Amino acid sequence: MPSPAVPHIGALPSGERDAITDVAGVTVGHCTLDEAEVQTGVTVVHPHAGDPFLQRVPAGAAVLNGFGKSVGLVQVEELGVLETPIALTNTFSVPAVAEAQIRDCIAMNPECGRGLPSVNPLVFECNDGFLNDMQRMAVRGHHYRQACAAASGEVAQGSVGAGRGMSSFALKGGIGTASRRVPRPGAGRHTVGALVLANYGLLPHLVIAGRAVGPRLEAQLAGAAPAAEPEKGSIIMLIATDAPLDARQLRRLALRAGAGLARTGSVFGHGSGDIALAFSTAYTLPLRSEQPMPAVALLHDALLDGLFRAAADSVEQAILHALWRAESITGRHGHRRPALSELLRDWPSDTFAHPLDPHP
């Protein structure tokens, strides 16, 4: 019996790839480390093809629960711009990836930190220590560069890159992505895309497309899953859009990622690091003061609701994609996380075929 297909969340249509890269100019790359006790990696999101240190994009962040060890978030909150690609990795690899970002910026801009301002590296993390031996600190600068070099519009999902060792709901988690198209005033559409690093959740709480499936899955595992513990996971949620928004509006957009996260059964637990960041590709802001600032007609606040819904739906969809696309992994000390697809093999193929939209 074929496994049920992943349900489509909400009424808005997805983009061509149903990925964050449906936002023009955005690319994603992975470097995956799969070596017995080492199950980890790096994922990189590029906002555009140029040098983000010289041509910055507006951004805003929302910290739903701050149990995390990111680098660069404080300056993003203060200045509202990105200066490097966004990097995702495991907790103990944040310093190595941040150093690689700094070194790459210096290589492209030799006056960085001298005649030019210092760069603000941006690295987010989740703790993959159940499957990955983080103490080996296996991720190095060249892995970050491999992920950068691999960046493209096609996004691998599941147990890849930074998602290799991640767990969600006592199942295999990882990387997921999705997008939604939103009608814009006049004609055409805006695109909102999301990419998540999913490493959170308690199995009894799992909700899929409005259906509380966690208890059934827990019974199906029949004790194979570890006993329920307090929430100690994390999730990083990245949102891109081509809508012309400023940093204040982007922070508001990032906050709506929490709606999509909550729909899957999360309450942003005490020990969970739940962080969202949104950026716009509609314009760039120059580093050099002698270059003119762009004259941008920003989207009116009263027209943001469609983007808010798209952000919530695409984050929820990206989380489901992370679960659906993941493969079962055995890692450190023989610890194993089963893939959701394994558990759904005996479920009717139309289980999620026609879900009622629980979010009208």
TrEMBL record:
Give the protein name, as stated in the record: D-aminopeptidase
State the species of origin.
Variovorax soli
Family, per the entry? Answer: Belongs to the peptidase S58 family.
Instruction: Provide the top EC class.
Output: hydrolase
Which domain of life, per UniProt? Answer: Bacteria
User: What Enzyme Commission number(s) does the record list for this chain?
Assistant: 3.4.11.19
**InterPro entries with a match to the protein in the record:** ArgJ-like_dom_sf, Peptidase_S58_DmpA
Is the Protease keyword given for this protein? yes
Q: Which GO molecular-function terms appear in the entry?
A: aminopeptidase activity
Pfam families with a match to the protein in the record: Peptidase_S58
Keyword GTP-binding assigned: no
Record keywords, A-Z: Aminopeptidase, Hydrolase, Protease
